[in-house]
What does this fold into?
Amino acid sequence: MGGVMTTEEQSERINLIPIYIMGKQYMVPESLTIMKAMEYAGYTLIRGVGCRGGFCGACGTAYRVLGDPKLYFGLACQTVVQPGMYLAQLPFFPARRAAYHLEDLEATSTQLFSLYPELLRCLGCGACTKACPQELDVRSYMAAGMRGDIAKMADMSFDCIMCGLCAARCPAEEGQYNIAILARRLYGRYMAPRSAHLAERLEEIRAGQFDATMEELKGLDENALKERYKARDIEPK
Amino acid sequence: MSGYPPEMQESIRLVESTRLRRLKETFTAMTLDEREAILKGFHPDYKDETFHAVRLGVSKGQRMPIELAQVVEGRPHIGPDFDVSAPIIETDVLVIGGGGAGASAALLAQEQGAKVTLVTKLRFGDANTMMAQGGIQAADRPQDSPPIHYLDVIGGGHFTNVPELVEALVVDAPFVIKWLEDLGMMFDKEPDGTMMEEHGGGTSRKRMHSARDYSGAEIMRTLRDEVRSREDDITVIEFSPAVELVKDDKGQVIGAVVMNLETEAYHFIKAKAVVMATGGGGRLHYQDFPTTNHYGATADGVVLAYRAGAPLGYLESMQYHPTGAAFPEQIVGLLVTEKVRGLGAQPVNKFGDQFVYPLEPRDVEAAALIRECKERNHGIITLTGQPGVWLDSPMIELIHGPGTIEKALPAMVRQFGRFDIDIAKEPMLVYPTLHYQNGGVRLRADSSTDVPGLFIAGEVSGGVHGHNRLMGNSLLEITVFGRRAGRAAAAHAQQMTWGTPSLEHVAQWNRELEENGIDTGVVAPILLPDYARKG
Ligand SMILES: Cc1cc2nc3c(=O)[nH]c(=O)nc-3n(C[C@H](O)[C@H](O)[C@H](O)COP(=O)(O)OP(=O)(O)OC[C@H]3O[C@@H](n4cnc5c(N)ncnc54)[C@H](O)[C@@H]3O)c2cc1C
Ligand code: SF4
Ligand code: SF4
Ligand code: FES
It folds into this structure.
């Protein structure tokens, strides 16, 4: 969005820097994220964009910076451009996903290894950890998986947005994020402690305990409802 | 190092100087009359000149933001002569939209024995659901109950909600939590299994269930993984948004025309029932507000269902989230979850003073922030001219102990940390941002609509939340009504009989546009916002 301003006026006010999108140079304002810089350069994005807020993992990007031998990784929607950035979008990196039905599984290491035998081939090299834009210790969650520690793998991988950058870097061809979500689902269904109050509430609803009150509330007119609403007691913090 | 410029740091010193005092005293909540007055004065919904009454269709006269009316009154992508004799796919249930509502519908329809095709605009899960942080409501603690939840929902919605829809929402809620748990979702719990539940704006009981601050992501990726586990029965087609519903000569919806986003080719998918689950419209940027919504949130479902004859409702109220990021520039508009206030952070002005109860219903809270900046000039103005007030996050650690923020709000820590702002030590600058579509396509408690064969679920619908949704009731809505829609669509698919495919509703739409002299210059649904700089 933004007002009417000529390019010259803009560049007087905004510092423009060179970046390279798939090899081609564009001058873009230095404050933009990679994603907004691509749009500034004229791209209409279809691939490599989703939430625009760091949650969906659609916008994985690999880049180099002129004069720097290192290869960097980031999310295009969360990373600010730098002068001399060479960008390549990695909107999707294929990784194997095992076929399973959660309800037929057991939360055991044997189960994890039989669905993902490649888990045991992890070399512990740490290339995944370096690539992870969520700063997860991917190598360690893989190590936890290799030890059969499903709870730990679930906990450590929790913030994974399944962007696939770890898989793109892995010499052992792991699909880390797919193994991790299996660990989390196994944990959530089979290992997490169950909540007694939830089970009780389900029983109460099934037994019709709230039916009468609910019918009554549905029948109230606006004024009566307002009175009830005002009279609510608020549970302290 | 602080990511804030010196002028802002000066104001932060003031915020720090009042912090200990503020820990002991919270600004009082408004009365219903005070709420009404502040809404009328400062909420964007009350700026009449930014609204437009729609000029054609079954809900003629329905007021909505001008930007939305432009797409609702838009021209269809395809003409009435588009060939609907040869579908590329035939299925029992077609689900349009790969967010939480669509995924839930697909799963439940499949469980009823239906073959399901799910089409979505971007990737499966590139959706508002993925972005929700705060949590999901359900009355499952002994001191709470579905009737208490009901009152909170209806009061929050200004007593305009449809009672049967609210009943469905609050009574199904505990069952949905159980369902998600059985699918392997990891809720935040105490070691004995007790759910950790917090307040949200407008709640009278703590009933916000969370999964750290990735609550929506955890729901979305769990549902998505389960859909992928059932690939024999559920086919997912990405980058293929629907651009028109297809009906038959009996007036039933029998599928949709989708567009391949890359080749721009149109295809007909034939189905015995259709679930519309396309989410909201934040990317239409009403009144030029920034938005929290994902890239594909362009109100497509409202456009499509309306053209097919389904009534709309409640679209005169949009939800502006009180706390969007206002600094730094790169993340302006992105959500600062309500959980931050739920955990005890107060909004304070540039002098370090409180000016509003932290957990008013969202519309009231947003109006109070706008008043503090626009009328009283007690806000900070950033270098780019963006107003904002402080949200005093460091209070959280004083209330709940050091390390709480890192543990409870990792996504927030990360988002601000990228710009050298440590939210455990420094407050965040916030201002309202366009967040949620309260209204949409009207539905019944079983998710059906006035148009046979068309079922609705999620943010695209209208009626559940009345004129204002409370946090945590939307993740609940998408699972409750997603499941209901899936079930009802599968049941419809079992007993329907085909008529002859027809695009007569498109022909009629075009006639009405012409008769009323309407030409908004827009081909709708627009599918994606236009952010590319031209030239
Ligand atoms: C940042 C953020 C935080 C939030 N936090 C919370 C919270 O804490 N608690 C809560 O309860 N709610 C929260 N909400 C609201 C809640 O997340 C959404 O309302 C809800 O997830 C909507 O789900 P949905 O399935 O209806 O739509 P979405 O999840 O948006 O899914 C719709 C899908 O349909 C696709 N689509 C759109 N148009 C078409 C088309 N023409 N054809 C095919 N597909 C299409 C979209 O691309 C998308 O994938 C939040 C929302 C946002 C944006
Ligand atoms: S990159 Fe691959 S091999 Fe290396 S530590 Fe990570 S998972 Fe293991
Ligand atoms: S673990 Fe892998 S897939 Fe998950 S966020 Fe990190 S790099 Fe992306
Ligand atoms: S667009 Fe979703 S993470 Fe960047």
